[in-house]
Amino acid sequence: MSSGRYGYDRLPPIRDRLVEIDEAIAELSQTHIRSAVIVTENSVPLGYTVPAFAMVDDACQRVTLDDIVAHGPAVLIFYRGAWSQRCTESLRRYERELLPELSRRGVNLVAISPQLPDGSQYTRVLNNLTFPLLTDAGNVIARTLGIAHFADPKTMDAIELAGYAVGSRNSDGEWELPHPTTLILDQQRSVRFIDVRIEGLPPTHPKDILAELHS
Fold this sequence. Notes:
Elements: H1 11-29, E1 54-56, E2 62-64, H2 65-68, E3 74-78, H3 85-97, H4 99-105, E4 108-113, H5 117-126, E5 133-135, H6 140-145, E6 148-150, H7 153-161, H8 166-169, E7 176-178, E8 181-185, E9 191-196, H9 206-214
Parallel strand pairs: 3-4, 4-5
Antiparallel strand pairs: 1-2, 3-8, 6-7, 8-9
InterPro entries: AhpC/TSA, Peroxiredoxin_BCP/PrxQ, Thioredoxin-like_sf, Thioredoxin_domain
Pfam family, one: AhpC-TSA
Domain Thioredoxin: 44-215
């Protein structure tokens, strides 16, 4: 039986091609195709200058947006609170995969939620976070950015059944929450990047944030 008749003599080229494919797959696994930026119809546009709001950290110390951007651009992560597993998982990921590079670049990273300072402290300690967690009392900043919303009744019921009374944990006693959002501000508090992640969407990828800072 002739190997040429059945194509056996073509095995080495095919084998070489498979090796090339495996190498290409390995290379792709080390890269990241940037996800689409989500901006809701209510979100502020790029170039919007955020007012010089003041917040408090988990030690009840006053922190202003001007403080945060005093030495360069800053990355602001809006999250819902300690009760949200998805949010706390994303904060841990940013600690591991984003904070080291931001620190090397001299870029501040802060996370912001409407929860009271003791909730922020709980979140930081429980998740071994080293970047500041700030309280946006009454969702004033989130509302200004167009990323605030009220939780729907089903979500509220599910969260309360799990033992979390979100209203009592937020500074104003309301169930108003920010959509998980990543914001990059320059030193003039101008929005360079805004990515609003509505319910069910994964958080902004660390590589996307770094790419925006590099652009």
